[in-house]
């Protein structure tokens, strides 16, 4: 009896696995087609000193405008893109598109907002990243200092020697480097000290728990002190309440990002959603 059950259990597992493999293959094909058909789009979320400005920059966030389904968020397709290598052409598109958009905003007389793009582990370990960044900057005539790459703490840590070498090349190009989701990885202080990073983003997890009277305020203070000691600007992500905003500002964050200050919106919508202040000088 037990044997039979074990068998049907296995068959069920096998079928579920086949369905899963099938789904992934389908997604892989769809993503390839999405690139050809130009179905990806970037939304932009501001980083602000305070709710009334100034604007420190904007972060580009990838969306897939899937026909018949609307905007698909990145966590639903990036893992497959990452595993299949499709993240390289998709990521190259993101970098070029962000620079093209900066140029368009400028030519239209909008602010000179610096743009950050997210770069995943496979992209950072890929030899072409530095060339892709340089090509996009030249093609759209953007100063390197107006572009920043965000790498998560875990991405920067993986294969630390290679990551450091590439990040040094990115920094030599003049492109900014931001450590994303900080506090969720396990960076050694020695490694962190060597990173040519300009900005450190405190993970949303700590921000969410703030003002609830637990240890997170002490942790956030410590992260801010550490980042500042290493010469980095501190950005808090996921700021949703006035209470969090006030506390983070008091603790010394240089910029804030989150639904309270502005949700990610399309490039066309962005100018109208930003506070009517001059952009912060870079
Ligand atoms: P991330 O870089 O840490 O981006 C922040 C995420 O938090 C975004 O989700 C943003 O929409 C969301 N968010 C912003 N403010 C708030 C808030 O106040 N509350 C809450 N609950 N969420 C907030 P999104 O756009 O779904 O992106 C998820 C992740 O996907 C990003 O995390 C980033 O790691 C990755 N990603 C996004 N775009 C790209 C891209 O172009 N290339 C690569 N390689 N990764 C990307
Ligand atoms: Mg990010
Ligand atoms: Mg983040
Ligand atoms: Mg995050």
TrEMBL record:
Stretches assigned to the EAL domain: 24-278
Name this polypeptide is given: cyclic-guanylate-specific phosphodiesterase
UniProt source species: Luteibacter pinisoli
């Amino acid at each position: 009896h037990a044997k039979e059950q074990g068998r049907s259990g296995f068959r069920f597992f096998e079928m579920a696995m086949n369905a899963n493999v099938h789904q992934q293959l389908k997604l892989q094909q769809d993503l390839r087609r999405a690139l050809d058909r130009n179905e990806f789009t970037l939304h932009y979320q501001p980083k602000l000193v305070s709710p009334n400005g100034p604007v420190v920059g904007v972060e580009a966030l990838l969306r897939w405008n899937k026909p018949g389904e609307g905007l698909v968020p990145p966590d639903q397709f990036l893992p497959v893109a990452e595993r299949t290598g499709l993240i390289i052409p998709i990521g190259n598109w993101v970098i070029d598109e962000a620079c093209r958009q900066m140029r368009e905003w400028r030519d239209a007389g909008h602010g000179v907002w610096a743009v950050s793009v997210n770069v995943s582990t496979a992209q950072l370990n890929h030899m072409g990243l530095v060339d892709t960044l340089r090509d996009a900057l030249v093609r759209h005539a953007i100063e390197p200092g107006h572009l920043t790459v965000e790498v998560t703490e875990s991405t920067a840590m993986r294969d630390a020697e290679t990551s450091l070498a590439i990040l040094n090349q990115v920094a030599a190009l003049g492109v900014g480097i931001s450590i994303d989701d900080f506090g969720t990885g396990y960076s050694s202080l020695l490694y962190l000290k060597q990173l040519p990073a300009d900005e450190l983003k405190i993970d949303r997890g700590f921000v969410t728990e703030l003002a609830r009277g637990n240890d997170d305020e002490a942790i956030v203070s410590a992260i801010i002190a550490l980042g500042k000691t290493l010469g980095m600007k501190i950005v808090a992500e996921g700021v949703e309440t006035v209470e969090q905003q006030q506390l983070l500002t008091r603790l010394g964050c240089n910029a804030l990002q989150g639904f309270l200050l502005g949700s990610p919106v399309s490039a066309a919508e962005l100018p109208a959603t930003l506070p009517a202040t001059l952009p912060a000088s870079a």
